[in-house]
Amino acid sequence: MTKKRINNILIIIQRSNGDVFLSSPLVDALYENYEHPLIDLLVNDHTLAAAKTLNNIHRIYTFSKSSSRFTEALKTIKAIYKKYDLSISLTASDRSVFFSIVSGNFSLSATEDSIKKSWWKKLFLNSSYYFDTSRHIVLNNTKSLELLGIETDRLTVSPKRFIQKEASFTRSLSKSGINKFIIFHPSAQYDYKIYPVHLRIKLLELLNTLDIPLIVTGGKSSLDMKIKKELPSLRNVYDFIGITSLEEFFALSNLSIAYIGSDTLNMHIAASQNKRIFAIFGPTILQTWSPWSNELQKNAISDKPVQTYGNITIFQADMPCVACGLAGCGDNHGKSDCLYHIDTFTIFNEVQKWLKTSP
């Protein structure tokens, strides 16, 4: 493929917020290599806010799973049919691959390792690669660059900055006497990723003794609202749950000095801003979903109770089942026993040690 032939590109990502957000290095590499083509996204509608944080995006199509799948598919096909010089699906599902095939003059996609599932995809796609769950999502998302002959020295997750919102927060926080603060993000999309309430309260009580403001963030979901009601009343704890949009979280996070909290999109946002990260992991596979270090160009590759690489520290339980990759014990989005075995003093001591040595 030559650069002159690539004027418009469609990237299809029909998975979660994290998958969409961590496609940033792919988008930026395509934008630079093909000399600023129009790059469109096709994402699930619940990830639209995350998609809007990416740079170099021209248009975003959304697919609603709450509507008739057949009707949505027909509407999408009509909108994208043969409109692109290049289409790339980062999702190996049948529907996503089909969208890539019908939309691009050159179609490329991730596929499953199973020949039974992927034979027809490889037959109709111009090129494909195996989605390797043992590799980080950033490395999977940029695998297509190799197939396109695009060389990259660095893979950097670099979302938009929301300058006006940062300025607004700076003014409002300064009026409250807050100039230096840490983000504490206890929530996640799923309950099985959330640090238990009694340990969460104990951790906040310990962190409160450090005498630095802790801004607690979260959305408006039922899980977030439950956490909001459980927050202890402490001198250095400020409750921002339910009052900030995703764009406002970007601004607030960029003004912070560190992130403490769950394995979730907000963790990846803070990591992309090169903040000091203290992440609490349950059953999630680190090789795929640990924070990506822009500085070191790496992620965590093994399970350890405490590990630090660059500005990122990860906490896990010291249990033989960690990390299982299941949606909680029993794989039913319920309780994760491993989260009950991560000691609050261990987290606190790492934060305290860092604060004593930070400028």
CATH class of the largest domain: Alpha Beta
- DSSP helix count? 15
Strand content: 15-25%
Distance between the termini: 49 Å
| Pattern of helices and strands | EHHEHEHEHEHEHHHEHEHEHEHEHEEH
CATH superfamily of the largest domain: Glycogen Phosphorylase B
Descriptive report:
The chain has 359 residues and is α/β, with parallel strands linked by helices. The protein has two domains: 145 residues, Glycogen Phosphorylase B (Rossmann fold); 192 residues, Glycogen Phosphorylase B (Rossmann fold, 3-Layer(aba) Sandwich). The chain contains 15 helices and 13 strands. The strands form two sheets. A seven-stranded mixed sheet has the order 9-8-7-10-11-13-12, with helices on both faces. A six-stranded parallel sheet has the order 3-2-1-4-5-6. Strand 12 and strand 13 form a beta hairpin. Helix 9 crosses helix 12 and helix 10 packs parallel to helix 15. The radius of gyration is 21 Å and the shape is globular.
